[in-house]
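Dear support,

We are seeing what looks like truncated structure output for some complexes. This example has two components. We would appreciate it if you could run it in full and send us the complete token output so we can diff it against ours.
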Amino acid sequence: MGDLAIQVESLSKQYRIGVGRYRHDTLRDHLRHGLTALFRPTGKAQAGENTIWALKDVSFEIKQGEVVGIIGRNGAGKSTLLKLLSRITAPTSGEAHVYGRLASLLEVGTGFHPELTGRENIYLNGAILGMKKAEIERKLDEIIAFAEIEKFLDTPVKRYSSGMYVRLAFAVAAHIDPEILIVDEVLAVGDAPFQKKCLGKMQDVSKEGRTVLFVSHNTAAMLNLCQRGILLSSGRIEGEGQMSEVLRQYLSHYSEVNLFQPHFGIREGDQRAVIEHLEVRPNPPQTGRRVEFTFSIQRSMASKGDLWVNLAVKIRSEDGAPIVIANSQDVGEEFHLSSGRTEITVRLEQLLLAPGRYRVSAWMGAGDFPVDRIQDCMLLCVEPGPLVGERHIGTTHYPVVMPSIWKREI
Amino acid sequence: MEQLQSLRVGTGIPELTKPHIVVKPPQGLWHLNLPELWHYRELLYFLVWRDVKVRYKQTVIGATWAILQPLLTMIIFTLLFSYLAKIPSDGLPYPLFVYAALLPWTYFAQAMWRCGNSVVGDAALITKVYFPRLIIPLASVIPPCVDSLWSSLILIGMMAWFGVNFTWALLLLPAFMGMALVTAVAVGLWLSALNVRYRDVNLTVPFLIQIWFFASPVIYPVSLVPETWRLLYNLNPVAGVIEGMRWAILGQPFSELGLLSVSFLMVVGLLIGGIVFFNRMEQTFADEI
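Here is the complete output from our reference environment:
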């Protein structure tokens, strides 16, 4: 009992969904329904109402000092689970026990007021996140230094750039010292250097022996930070165990192969133009045969000026190890994007990958600066094919294949 | 942190030193957790501080407005109701008579309005952070007190002008203002919780305030109300508050002390009902807001 941090026992949460609630023909019906609704036990739906189980019979335990990642598609119940554990909303049935001081970070900058200065917002936000005034005062210098906003400390945050705003917000959040930390997708905001900084801070936190429960779409970050993973699907636990195992299960179950699925991975860049689609041909591709990737790119009407981009297709193994990159920059190609749609194809003369599954990331940048970059936007499934001659190469543990010619010399 | 460790939220297997939080479906009617509310007092303070700061930052004339508004209202009311309509004021100077009522009324109307909108207004907090939700309506009724402090300066000036004796009864003024505050919270709790589910509540509050104004003895004396209706009339706690104010400031005799207790009981009833109702509704605030 003593070393448990979180214990969840068949936790469930039911939501009512719209329709049933407003189907009243007369004012009298509406009032009658309204009055009974006011005093009935909250969270329990009446018969005939449209409901959905956002979370159903979820049970797990987390030991002190564990860093656990929760993965699942959108709507799988990840955020609901975090909200229940943070006591933002109450469960419909089941229960959970949390042992230790808990802080949840479901958003950075919760409660920031635009009219107040940076300093004032540090106090306000700190108090909202559960810090005591004395504690905030003690850490004030540290927070200011971390946020790098010394000069603007007494400026209202409405005059801050969005970067400064996010830095300040994260700085406050990074200085709450709970025993248990719940983090939801916070890393998805800000630019790349900021995300790196957040990640570094998260790593520090987990090294200090705190318990962390973490939701993110950033699979690489999940692998680096978490020992254990929980896979949620339609409100139930679908898998649990080593992070790399759970991630593999997630990627193989939930990605349909060889299709563009931009919502799984993290996406960054200034989005002056976006990758709307990535198509692989033939589908499925075969080892040793020719393969083409076609980018469909949409340049926004609002973006001004000349835009030259280079493109890249990155291929990594299922567990995230880099294997190969095809980068237009490496062959000196750049493409001019006029506003509207552009299609660009890269042809790989011979696919030198062993049969199996790989993760593909798409990159579009102007120089080294990302315009739109989508990590893990396709699960590539390579079928056996002939490399030299007609003989098919089967699955091996070695991802890269090479045409080889064997000859007896003596 | 020490405080939190000694605080046991909910029930469950006892653990040494560590706080133990139980997450489970709400049961029963009464969820008020006073120790926890006390633990979050600093958040209450910061929310009040935020509203006061923002209030005085955005307006150029700041405190002047807090003084001007009741002053101008008093002048207009005096002209309209005393000079033109000849409404009696129990032999007291009408400006003072009406100002003594405007002070708690202005506060009450503002506090109730703010309280009714408080939960919806802080939706961003409710969906992202845990704290006892009661903090929000509680914090919302305090900032208007600052305005009341400013406008009570005018009251003192007027008392001197009209040559009213300062008596010990004046010390009871805060108590009556306190009753106005509790009334605003009691009604505001109902409104703020209802507002989350039915946004039309927001639209009815100005109307409610208008009706309430005429149901309270702001521009007329209670003596104008027929004796037989007095008991019913005093179910309105604001009537009790205003009578109390006039008594404390002007030494005007209470119509009946028993009627004040009617007002008082009404406030207590509304407050307890409000807390139960709010606690019940707050479980789903985050889902419905």
